[in-house]
Amino acid sequence: MMRKRTLWILPLTTILTITLLWTYAALAFGSGSRSGLLSTDASSPLTSGYDGDTTVTVDTSTGVYGITVYDTVNHRATLQYHANKPFKMLSVVKLLIALDTLDSGGDPSEVSDMLRYSDDAIARELWWQGGKTDVIARMTSKIGLSHTKPPDDPIWWGFTTSTASDLVRIYRYILDDAPAPSRRIIMSALEHASRTGSDGFNQYFGIPTAAGSQPWAVKQGWSCCRIGRSLHTTGTVGADHRYIVIVLGLWGKKTTWSADKQAINAVVKSLMPLVE
């Protein structure tokens, strides 16, 4: 007997309630054995191929979000919300810069420092060395990204746009398909992300705050205020990087970092029953 997983947005609030009642059917995402990401239409019933019951409630009234949680063992998404909504990648684009740099024989220590400390100076240097937007063209073609676009002005590498669904693809590529040396360099840097970025910003928000005792690896992003105030928390949670968690967030310019961090922390914390 098939049991459905249903996602509802309550009409009088913007509380997103996702009832995960597992079934043996899933909508395909991508190709090959790594399929199974679900529809991103939040008004439609969602189904998945898991056993068991889990219910999570995500308050989406606190910002503009793109969310995906993906199980790398069962090859299925357990939750998607606005997964194809484009966001500026900000420092998360450093994942693509890292992959491209390592493909071309670049310095692993520079790549590691760029990721671990979210170092903009190193990112800028590698972006220019890689031909700026050529970096995005090469990596979108190689990974098969559907929604990732280069910035209109090639100077602004952080304004590369992407989506939660494409970021899942990027992490799946790093974990499954990237050359082993590149995977080790990148994931080690993300596992040892510094509390403070090179610009002095505390990048322990979202996944590092909500994961508790579970192992995590992250690439974070933050920016203010050309497009509003943004915080992105992306990476893996669990042993052997089992779950990919993507939460992209955007707020108005008049909010505060403290309020926005509190909001994204609450969103990620509400997702944790899906990765335990």
List the helices and strands and how they pair.
Layout: E1 6-9, E2 15-21, E3 53-59, E4 64-71, E5 76-81, E6 87-88, H1 94-103, H2 108-116, H3 120-129, H4 133-143, E7 161-162, H5 164-176, H6 180-191, H7 207-210, E8 216-223, E9 229-237, E10 243-251, H8 257-271
Antiparallel strand pairs: 1-2, 2-3, 4-5, 4-10, 6-7, 8-9, 9-10
Helix pairs in contact: 1-2, 1-4, 2-3, 2-6
Can you walk me through this structure?
- The protein is globular.
- Strands 5-4-10-9-8 form a five-stranded antiparallel β-sheet, with helices on both faces. Strands 1-2-3 form a three-stranded antiparallel β-sheet.
- It is 30% helix and 22% strand.
- The two termini are 26 Å apart.
- The chain has 276 residues and is α+β, with helices and mostly antiparallel strands.
- It has one domain (6-275): Beta-lactamase.
- The model is unreliable at 1-52 (pLDDT under 50).
- 45% of the residues are buried.
- A hairpin with a 4-residue loop joins strand 4 (64-71) and strand 5.
- The chain contains eight helices and ten strands.
